[in-house]
Each structure stands twice: as structure tokens, then as C-alpha cells.
Specification:
Largest sheet: 4 strands, parallel
Oligomer: single chain
CATH superfamily: STAS domain
CATH architecture: 2-Layer Sandwich
Radius of gyration: 14 Å
Distance between the termini: 34 Å
Number of strands: 8
CATH class: Alpha Beta
CATH topology: Transcription Regulator spoIIAA
Helix content: 25-40%
Strand content: 25-35%
Number of domains: 1
């Protein structure tokens, strides 16, 4: 059991767990990366785990995506929370490592 100050009400105990899954499709060009980052930040504020599946996405600018993931990754880098990236292309894995994004990853 844990104290959950955000979802169950201030100071209430909660056994609930909320996982959100995002699966963008198509090109993640700069406007789409910003849109994705906004969605991830909103989900990170209200979820225990956010899964980002990149299997259907093309990432032409891996470093732009990595930079956009920094804030939601930081929000989810606390005990009992996680940002999980799945189907991650090698160039995105490299960008994440080089920029220090704190996320669990599963390669494509």
C-alpha cells in the first residue's frame, strides 16, 4: 500500500495502479513530437506507468524526441513509477543514452 497524494485524494491510501499506453503512428516530425510530449506530461502527472510504443512510428529526429521525453521521464522516475519505451529503434536508444533520459527501454 502507498500514500497517493494525486489520484485517490490527499493522504488517502491506494492499492490502485494506473497504466497508460501511447502508440503514435507515422512520422514524429517536430510538431508531432511536441504534441506527444504534452500528452506524456499529462499522463505522467496522473499515471503510475506510461508505456510509449514506437513500433508504428518513424522518428526522423531522435535527439528531438529524446529531449521531449526528458520532462515526463523525470516525473516518472520515482519509486513505484516508470516510463517504458517499447519497440525503440537503435538510433533512438542511442539518443536516449546520450541525453540521459531516465526510462526503461525495449529495443525494436
Amino acid at each position: 500500500m502507498r500514500i497517493d497524494a494525486g489520484r485517490a485524494g490527499i493522504g488517502e491510501r491506494s492499492d490502485a495502479w494506473l497504466t497508460a499506453v501511447l502508440r503514435p503512428a507515422g512520422n514524429l516530425d517536430p510538431p508531432q513530437v511536441e504534441r506527444l510530449a504534452g500528452a506524456l506530461e499529462a499522463l505522467a502527472a496522473s499515471s503510475d506507468m506510461v508505456i510509449l510504443d514506437l513500433g508504428a512510428a518513424n522518428v526522423p529526429e531522435p535527439y528531438r524526441l529524446a529531449a521531449a521525453l526528458r520532462a515526463p521521464a523525470r516525473q516518472l522516475a520515482r519509486p513505484g513509477r516508470c516510463l517504458l519505451l517499447v519497440s525503440v529503434p537503435p538510433e533512438v536508444l542511442h539518443a536516449l543514452a546520450r541525453t540521459g533520459v531516465q526510462a526503461a527501454t525495449l529495443a525494436a
